[in-house]
């Protein structure tokens, strides 16, 4: 799944399959300007910053069990969001410090370090990486990903895929080659 925020005409947090199909709103009320999003892959939670409402909130992958983690004027200065173990990590754009926030109750906020020009944050740790398994976009015997001549996008599961073409090309009737 792909999770993303949108604060165009109607602010929301959404999810869809990697090929863009099955688009689903998971948060569409009491939300104004969601600017950063992080996933807890183990427990299947979505965290986001709303800089207009000055809040950090969380829901499960279906949009249920919504909770506010923290609120306050300091939220409008945050950018980027990552989750690891018991904490959320974000950047304070005012002083470019990395902040650690307890993700269960919003307390225990600590500035960890200062970085020049930081706007985004990611946590890379072996335990947060999903184990690789065979999938529909693996290279076929001729080296084409999922048998697609240009792009292979995972669909509703790791066993299903959709072929797409680069700009200026049209997908052929075989659903795999681009012309």
Automatic annotation (TrEMBL):
Pfam families: FXa_inhibition (PF14670), Ldl_recept_b (PF00058). GO terms for cellular component: plasma membrane. GO terms for molecular function: Wnt receptor activity; Wnt-protein binding. Transmembrane segments: none annotated. InterPro entries: 6-blade_b-propeller_TolB-like, Cueball_EGF_LRP_Nidogen, LDLR_classB_rpt. LDL-receptor class B repeats lie at residues 1-43. GO terms for biological process: canonical Wnt signaling pathway. This is LRP1B protein. The gene is Lrp1b_1.
